[in-house]
Amino acid sequence: MTAVDFDLSDQAFWARPMAERERAFDLIRSLERPPYFEEMEISFAPKGPGYYALARHADIVEVSRHPEIFCSGDGGATNIPDMPAEFAEYFGSMINMDDPRHARLRRIVSRSFTPKMIKQFETDVEVAAARIVDDLLAKGPGADFVTDVVARLPLKIICDMMGIPERDYQFVFERSNIILGGFDPEYSGGDLAGVAERLLTAGMELQQLVQDLAAYRAEHPTDDLTSSLVNANIDGERLTMQELGSFFILLVVAGNETTRNAISYGLRLLTENPGQRALWLEDIDGRAPGAVEEIVRLASPVNFMRRKLTRDFELNGQLYPAGMKVVLFYWAANRDPEVFADPYRFDITRDANPHVGFGGPGPHFCLGAHLARREITLMFRELLRRVPTIEGGRPDRLHSSFINGIKHMECTF
Q: I need a surface site. Which of 6, 24, 172, 284 has the fewest CB within 10 A?
């Protein structure tokens, strides 16, 4: 491959075999300067100035440390084209904001996660993981590991956390799939022209669900997170209903999709690396922390985030002008041989593992990293103790440039 043999803006690139994606990003990292790509033409957003693809670990860490220069709020961080105004109502959460608005929202949300609530979450994860494995054993081999097993864990924890009743679990699951799988034929039905309408409808429906619950919790509070958020008053600041709705969408999408994909990839990695499985089985609890970090590194559930320059800035000898976009490809940075020895090797004993699977350093580091680590740890503890021979079949990958996802994967044991 050469720099002109592929286009990261072309959705077809993200449907190509994983080995080709690896070679493409190996090439990008080897270039003297990051390559420039034009933005994809889409019907619901203006075409922007294009972007530089950052694939080196050092570049992504440096950009993450300077949010005042590489901003998230001007057009959004979760998409390469600038987010249209009508999308911001549903998807304009703190991940797509800069300080001081970002700091204000993060402060209100962070203080709502009380020690008591966090302890309860951890207990709930343990109970839920055990029940899910009970059901797997009752059903027997041949289950879809993604939809029948791992998707249930983060979905239940997030819905229970917010106080969403069990009858709405499937509703939330389907809408989150639409939001992150807009270009995948399974979720689009091949109708790419209707992507914008489906995204807006799914966002509106999720926001309405939590706003209705919040209105009730304002008068009838319980110990769930919705009650805490809707009644929070931190230094005289409160969340608006729109902010609460956008936060719920962020929580559902980020906390549900990313954790389930990390666990799914984790099973596939153990299937392809039986020596690492045997090593983990020797000391399930003791080796769990290292194994979880290595799974997150190689899974890299979020492929990228976007930033826009607020002023001219020089990085590694290249001048980036104000208004230009850079895209931080975390998946590629987590395979940088300058940082990770033998980067494509799955090694649960990897000692230095400064991956950016939860984002780079700075204010946008994942707020839910602790909960995600807990869910991954306890799910694998249950599986390895009770179904130690479980294997994952060939994964059916999500067609998405943003999420490195697995939609379906048969499991056997």
A: 284
At position 195, the amino acid (one-letter code) is: V
Q: Are 193 and 411 in contact (CB under 8 A)?
A: no
* Distance in angstroms (rounded) separating the CA atoms of residues 65 and 67: 6
pLDDT at 192: 59
Tokens at residue 271, please?
A: 């299937």
Whether the predicted model's global pTM rises above the 0.85 cut: yes
Is residue 38 within 8 A of residue 334, CB to CB? The reply is no
Q: DSSP letters along 236-251, please?
A: TB---HHHHHHHHHHH
For residues 29 and 45, the model is more confident at 29
Residue 280 tokens read as 């983990």
Give dist(CA 355, CA 340) in Å, integer. 9
- The type of residue at 391 is E
Please name the helix (run of DSSP H) or strand (run of DSSP E) that holds residue 204, with its range, or none: helix 195-219
Pairing of strands 36-37, 51-54: antiparallel
Residue 390 structure tokens: 């479980």
- pLDDT exceeding 70 applies to what percent of the chain? 97
* Residue indicated by tokens 């966002």: 203
Alpha helices in 253-391 (DSSP H): 258-272, 274-282, 284-299, 330-333, 369-386
φ/ψ of 307, rounded to 5, equals: -135, 155
- Contact between residue 335 and residue 24 where contact means Cβ atoms under 8 Å apart: no
The backbone region for 190, taken as left when phi is positive above 0, alpha when psi lies in -120 to 50, beta otherwise, is left
Helix, strand, or coil (residue 213)? helix
